[in-house]
């Protein structure tokens, strides 16, 4: 039955894959366009002066809100994925999520504080429905075609990075050159286009992703040696307590700094109420994890301990890596010489033209291939997609024209964030080849190298900022240091980020994957929140020490964590019991 239901997708392929994969490719591309486009502008807009039509927030306040938003992005999929899987189905979840995110971007295009918070709420809620469902649809489409899954996910991942690249480039350009709310509005327009394109083309997926139908019995294909470990009443209570405290803490952090309303306005011993409550939440959650792990057999227990250790080190990675949308954006805006004169300006014009036109040309070619296969049956979806690309080409050509005609082009502060996607597109195939060769290192070594490379990027920034005086609010450092930082950060990401979720699926038995994925996303959420909290200390550290010292901390902590996990390799190898 499964073979019959999925074989139809491969009858009229595009580049050897079902046309439906490319519908998902473009839908995800627009979602990433909107997310990264808005993310590139948020801190810049909040900290920009009133003269620049910003809100002139203190950096600590802006980064606190940024950290809360990005952490919620990784928490809401835990609930959204459950609702999609059990109640509304993946396809409806994509539509609902995209519509909510469209409303979020539309709200942010309105210049009011209430609209900003409402917009961020809609974006987080929409992301919760959208994020976990797209890959689930791909997984179902490729049932009984496992040999083509790696290629499918590679194509899909290219859509992710293409969207991030174009979103940062164009929303950043509009936001900084035309007005902040133009950038936010553009993100919403393409999110809405992505939703319409998916809605009108969803028939291409057949029965895949529809509302789930309850069945009386379910065939069990899991390893019978793995005993069940149902959640007890105490387990559920611990989950509820830790989740409630953690959620309130995440929201309370910016609320107390920006609005002056502190839910945790008390002290326990020498700890502030906020610190005490988050430590309590972490302690409760740790008790829950330990209590569940010890109930399993030795092999399962050890492997889950290994996953927990990797999740712990993941926090260090994201706490530093997500400075990209926070302190590194501030460094680009306020401390970097972005006005390029003479030969430097010419080099930038040529390089920016090539890195923009070539990827966009390739994606447009893929779009034409999709048109040939699907236009007859899904006319409206293709018309919407084609119109979207005409707008994209118009904006790209306008941007390049303005840069080529300017006497001394100014690099937008948001532009540097596109380097991450660009380096991924260039180097991901190389890393994939290494991981498939005899030189493929162990997961612990990959983690360690990733963290050390991440720290090296901050070492470049620390060196570049070494001549900036203590307490300085502006400077004009060469752009080379940001370029080097993003290069090393991307190399670190390629070592670590794709590895994590893969090893969760390898190490954890099927019936426990949902829980451990939840733990994994929780670790990433904690890292994102810490990124906002630590990034918000940029002014304090710069005043007391220097900006170079601030970035040096992000070299020492991830770098030290990287060395530590490499030293833990023998222990982790033993805990993994033969999984490589």
Can you tell me about this structure?
- The chain has helices spanning 2-7, 19-47, 59-88, 90-108, 113-130, 134-141, 149-177, 180-201, 233-259, 273-293, 298-321, 327-334, 342-374, 379-405, 418-435, 443-464, 480-507, 513-535, 538-544, 547-567, 569-576, and strands at 267-268, 271-272.
- The chain has 580 residues and is mainly α.
- Residues 217-221 have low confidence and may be disordered.
- It has three domains: 18-213, Growth Hormone, Chain: A; 230-295, no CATH class; 297-338 and 414-579, MFS general substrate transporter like domains (Growth Hormone, Chain: A, Up-down Bundle), CATH 1.20.1250.20.
- It contains 21 helices and two strands.
- Helix 4 (90-108) runs antiparallel to helix 8 (180-201) and helix 11 packs parallel to helix 16.
- Helices cover 74% and strands 1% of the residues.
Task: Sum this structure up briefly.
Helices cover 74% and strands 1% of the residues. It is mainly alpha-helical and 580 residues long. Strand 1 and strand 2 (271-272) form a beta hairpin.
Keywords:
580 residues, mainly alpha, Growth Hormone, Chain: A, 3 domains, 74% helix, globular
Q: Order of strands across the biggest sheet? A: 1-2
* SSE-based structural type: mainly alpha
Helix content: over 70%
On the 0 to 100 scale, the average pLDDT is 88
Going by CATH, what is the homologous superfamily of the largest domain? MFS general substrate transporter like domains
Biggest β-sheet, characterized? 2 strands, antiparallel
- Report strand %: under 5%
CATH class of the largest domain: Mainly Alpha
Radius of gyration over C-alpha positions, nearest whole angstrom: 24 Å
Distance between the termini: 34 Å
Please state the second-level CATH architecture of the largest domain: Up-down Bundle
Give the ordered list of helices and strands: HHHHHHHHHEEHHHHHHHHHHHH
Pfam family, one: PTR2
Family: Belongs to the major facilitator superfamily. Proton-dependent oligopeptide transporter (POT/PTR) (TC 2.A.17) family.
Keywords: Cell membrane, Membrane, Peptide transport, Protein transport, Transmembrane, Transmembrane helix, Transport
GO molecular function, one term: peptide transmembrane transporter activity
